[in-house]
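Archive entry: two folds, one per protein. Generate the first.
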Amino acid sequence: MNTTSSDLVRRRYATGDISLLDDDIIWSVLDTFPEGGGYVGRHAVAERFFPAVRTHFTEYVTTPETFPTDGANVATTGLYRVRTTLGKTGEIAFAHFWTIRNGKIVAFHQVADTAALRDLRAVQETES
């Protein structure tokens, strides 16, 4: 079966399978997002980024909605549905940009609605 770039990204969302990431992936997240910045390598993404992000939320669900694809490049848009550690819930719009090479995800770039995130976090910081 020939797996397309879009299929690979869809599988990543559905399963969270870290093995779909290249060993040397470039992972880039907005600096204004919790634990934002750049990460290099599958280990850094799995062992540093995701565990750190989860400390800010008790629920964090990524729901992709669109998957426009141009060969090795896939753009997804969707919503993060989150609950902060103080129980505040919200939705944050995102766009993810993926690059696929040789059946692996070699690059990821995230942008998100930082105003919505700031509003959720402002409530959390005020109440703590």
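Generate the second and append.
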Amino acid sequence: MKRPFDPDRILMPNTYVRLLTQEFDDLAAIAAGTGIAPEDLADYAHPITMRQHLRCIANILPLRQSPDWHLHWGKRMAENFHGAVTLAWLSAPTLGHGLDTFIKYMPDRIPYLDWRGRSHGESFRCEVTPLVDLAAVRHMLIEVPLLVMHEYVCMLHRGPMDDARIELTYAPTDYRDRYADYFLCPVAFGQPRNALVIPAAWRAIANIDFDEGAWHAALARCEAAARSDDERDVVERVREVLADALAQPAPAGLPTLQQVAARLHCSSRTVIRRLRAADTSFQAVAEEMLKDRAATLLDDPRNRVQDVAARLGYADSASFRKAFKRWFGVTPGAWRRTGGV
């Protein structure tokens, strides 16, 4: 079963939003509606959700001095600021290896786009397709990735780009006359896919900066980051299943490890292994969920302690009080009297 695509749960690097804070001074405007304090935005130390990322991008639209600002920004950013992916494609043996690496690992950094590389006759296509409605920022978030790949090709090809082209699915934009300032190849609108298209033969162009040691080290970092994302994803999915159970009006306790694994369509051993890789365990995640839910329910004075115990699946109030004291260091009654402090 395919996991629902939830922009509020999918995490992204904060790199691109932090770069925006170097371009625009109005941090309050950029942060509006994200839940992130403006003063924290420039040095934000945590991943952000896809929705927060997209909101920040949308928030800068009124701050731009021109509608093609993103292309100027993308050209300056180009092949940099993509984590281990930057190191990998800069040290790749050929242009083709570099593009393949970018397309393979960028979904971990830009998850709202479907990235595809495919051969078509004598051409090779680098395609990006939105997975969510990008609304007013669609042009920006499609054109910048294509421009970044275009700049990479220019760096290695070192010759005329006339045989390449940019294809866009939408009608000509208001700034269509400015594309020639950024793309050294034709741009076609109203096409079936958004793509950078190059002659397939260009894939064999050697990278004069190829460094075998750096290349393999960078690939290992990309793979490690991808595995880490998978592990965090499993933790989040386990939390979702447990949260769904706790949200029921009269739950009979949390589902077992075996029941959670069945919901996730994998084995219990797989869940255990991936949780361990993320430095946690099923018991720890379950305890965390019970603790948070207990605090939420006790915040409502209408909920009696025995009712909260039953909602959380405890056989009696005494067992719940014992668990609660282990979590918070005080009994539920004392916790309420101090306002949860």
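Annotation attached to the second fold: Strands lie at 11-12, 48-49, 113-120, 123-130, 165-167, 187-188, 195-199. The domain at 227-337 is CATH 1.10.10.60 (Arc Repressor Mutant, subunit A).
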